[in-house]
Amino acid sequence: MTDHPAVLVEGLRKSYGRHTALAGLDLLVAEGTVHGVLGPNGAGKTTAVRILATLLAADGGRAEVLGVDVLRQPQLVRPRIGLTGQYAAVDERLTGLENLEMFGRLYRLSARTARARAAELLERFDLAEAAGRQAKTYSGGMRRRLDLAASLIMAPAVLFLDEPTTGLDPRSRQAMWRVIADLVRDGTTVLLTTQYLEEADQLADRVSVVDTGRVIAEGTTDDLKRQIGGDRLDITVAEGCDLGGAAEVLARSGTGAATVDADERRVSVPVSGAGILAEVVRGLDEIGVTIVDVALHRPSLDDVFMTLTGHGAAPAGATGPGGPGGDDGPPGPRTGDDERDLVKA
Ligand SMILES: Nc1ncnc2c1ncn2[C@@H]1O[C@H](COP(=O)(O)OP(=O)(O)OP(=O)(O)O)[C@@H](O)[C@H]1O
Ligand SMILES: [Mg+2]
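A: This is the predicted complex of the input protein with magnesium ion.
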């Protein structure tokens, strides 16, 4: 451990021509932690990561990795970091093993050490069986794992992951989450960008929510979820059932007031997790209410944005730089993206 934070960013600015990508970004990431940078398309996530990884020059502000200025001393930063890009950097014509060996050689490992390290990483990422196949025959998830393995040839002190699971199926996504958790246990600090609140929730100790190139909220995902009211349970009941009675049952188990949508015959209540589901079902059964549909709505990035900015997580530019004011409006329209049907009659 050093006395420095793993990552320190202050007032970071970057424009592409007249377009501002970073408008004074601030980040502080403690060593040994996972920090999530959560934001919609065009928020400036990749720009920030590329500057921190010394691949792009900033226009102004401060950016340090492990106490070293990335703008002034990039050569001291590079040996201590790894970067997995949004788009995989592997060579399609090479096999998985050859790709990793090549990266090892680029880092000046001996042929033998490079080969051993490659084999170890292929094993860890569940690619040992596919090691001898050309990367172009890999599925998207395998490609992404190979890309992550390539960024870990030197077991970096700080790892930047730019949307590591975008486009992966749920199983590959969970495999990736496990690998990332293992790395952190071994002492790597991770800064990851994501568009998924759920991913940040799984992995990150702290989160910075970024909108049009600046941080609009910072804290733990629990802090964020508290601000937006956490999960919501929606129960649709059969025609003719007692909606008021159902609302009372839900209110007993929820963390806030229940609301009734008489037209949809739906009763909703804020909850913390799915744990109270059995209790609610029993309670409704006792008063003779028949359930038609149960859905647990987990807050999404859209909900976070709706609460923090009054607009959804639209791509930057759609609302113009600066965007609408930060008034906390009523909880906005739900997207249904993250809606999970638990029971369907
Ligand atoms: N090379 C470039 N030239 C011009 N504009 C750019 C360039 N790269 C990024 N931008 C713009 O800068 C803004 C921030 O882009 P960036 O790629 O950092 O966003 P992001 O948060 O990574 O988005 P995504 O979630 O889509 O990957 C966007 O409006 C984008 O259009
Ligand atoms: Mg990006």
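Residues 316-345 have pLDDT under 50 and may be disordered. The pocket of adenosine-5'-triphosphate (ligand 1) is lined by residues 16, 19, 21, 39, 41-47, 86, 195, 316-317 (CB under 6 Å).
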